């Protein structure tokens, strides 16, 4: 019975670790919305790209909408697919339905480890930050008042769930990672329903990514903690770029073009922040059906840093936090990164190379 229970928990945990923080539509083919391909084709006729209709995937949103990614790919056509959560995107990558994807660290870790290191590689960074602990100020005035309260995270074992459990443990507060019961009640709630849960009073706060955090603030919540403040240099990975190992081996020129487009997109975002914010919101409306209100969009966008460095040292730390929380057996992440093409692109742009924290291609 004990073995069966452990196995059940392992399955649930694996599903949670594959999750990410979607805020858009269901998985859907959006190829018709992609800019037209023109010029010489690379080694593949088509590259299938997955992402979320979420601000933390702003590089993909802006790069696609502005045609920057397509420009780098020339005559190689982009076919896109929009996801709500990591499990579907990892499954799509494994099935060959997508070749490259923007995704959070926890699903990348679990997708790599569950395949024995054979399914994917992280080939680039995309975003840091954009996660906050927001609370009902009438019920929680400081971090010393968290005991006995109800806090939401997007899903068991996802990136924010791990971060909250790790933070609570550091404060001496005990929580069962599987049930969420303990000194603090951790409630796993889809980002789309968390605002309603807050309005109804069924939760007292949430550790969530943008734009959910800013949405809660518009409902009267206050920011108790920005996750940036618990990380060295205020940086931690929230979105990476992954590629199937098969596609990487067969079409490195296509992967390089996507990475070149990503780097150029991030540079454009930094130089044109307000315009980029509007462009990202236009793409969210196209993908999810509704644009974000300015009261949500503005603070959410401001808190996200779009970067090319995948911040490999923080990925290892996030995996260690999941182990500490009891949600993951210590994973072997050796070989999860292949930054060869990214560093080629960065070098050509006169930029410093990104480090893989000893977890590079073997």
Please provide a written account of the structure:
This protein is α/β, with parallel strands linked by helices. The chain contains 14 helices and twelve strands. It has two domains: 2-129 and 236-348, D-Maltodextrin-Binding Protein, domain 2 (3-Layer(aba) Sandwich); 131-234, Periplasmic binding protein-like II (D-Maltodextrin-Binding Protein, domain 2). Strands 1-3-2-4-11-5-12 form a seven-stranded mixed beta sheet, sandwiched between helices. Helix 2 (58-65) packs across helix 10 (252-271). The radius of gyration is 20 Å and the shape is globular. Mean pLDDT is 89; it is low at 1-33. This is Sulfate ABC transporter substrate-binding protein.
Secondary-structure blueprint:
Elements: H1 2-17, E1 28-29, E2 46-52, H2 58-65, H3 68-73, E3 77-83, H4 86-95, E4 100-103, H5 105-114, E5 120-129, E6 131-135, E7 150-153, H6 159-170, E8 185-188, H7 194-200, E9 205-209, H8 212-218, E10 222-226, E11 237-244, H9 245-250, H10 252-271, H11 273-288, H12 294-302, E12 304-306, H13 312-325, H14 340-348
Parallel strand pairs: 2-3, 2-4, 7-8, 7-9
Antiparallel strand pairs: 1-3, 4-11, 5-11, 5-12, 6-9, 6-10
Helix pairs in contact: 2-10, 2-11, 6-13, 8-12, 10-11, 10-14
């Amino acid at each position: 019975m004990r073995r069966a229970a452990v196995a059940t928990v392992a399955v649930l945990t694996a599903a949670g670790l594959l999750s990410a923080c979607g805020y858009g539509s269901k998985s859907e083919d959006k190829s018709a919305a992609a800019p037209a391909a023109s010029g010489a084709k690379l080694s593949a006729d088509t590259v299938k790209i997955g992402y979320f209709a979420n601000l933390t995937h702003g590089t993909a949103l802006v790069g696609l909408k502005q045609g920057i990614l397509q420009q780098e790919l020339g005559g190689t056509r982009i076919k896109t697919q929009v996801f709500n959560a990591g499990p579907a995107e990892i499954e799509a990558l494994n099935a060959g339905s997508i070749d490259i994807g923007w995704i959070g660290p926890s699903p990348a870790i679990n997708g790599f480890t569950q395949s024995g290191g054979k399914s994917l590689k992280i080939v680039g960074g995309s975003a840091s930050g954009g996660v906050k602990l927001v609370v009902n100020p009438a019920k929680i005035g400081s971090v010393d008042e968290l005991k006995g309260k109800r806090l939401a995270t997007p899903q068991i074992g996802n990136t924010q769930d791990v971060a909250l459990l790790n933070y609570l443990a550091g404060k001496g507060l005990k929580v069962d990672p599987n049930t969420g019961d303990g000194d603090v009640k951790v409630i796993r709630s889809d980002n789309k329903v968390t605002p309603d849960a807050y309005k109804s009073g069924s939760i007292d706060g949430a550790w969530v990514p943008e734009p959910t955090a800013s949405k809660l603030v518009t409902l009267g919540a206050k920011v108790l903690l920005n996750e940036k403040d618990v990380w060295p240099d205020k940086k931690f990975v929230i979105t990476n770029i992954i590629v199937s190992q098969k596609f990487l081996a067969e079409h490195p020129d296509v992967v390089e073009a996507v990475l070149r487009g990503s780097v150029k997109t991030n540079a454009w975002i930094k130089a044109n922040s307000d315009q980029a914010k509007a462009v990202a919101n236009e793409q969210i409306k196209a993908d999810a059906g509704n644009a974000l209100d300015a009261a949500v969009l503005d603070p959410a966008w401001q808190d996200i840093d779009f970067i090319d460095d995948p911040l490999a040292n923080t990925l290892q730390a996030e995996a260690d936090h999941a182990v500490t929380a009891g949600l993951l057996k210590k994973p072997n992440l050796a070989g999860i990164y292949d930054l060869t093409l990214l560093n080629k692109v960065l070098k050509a742009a006169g930029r410093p190379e990104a480090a893989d924290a000893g977890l590079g291609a073997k």
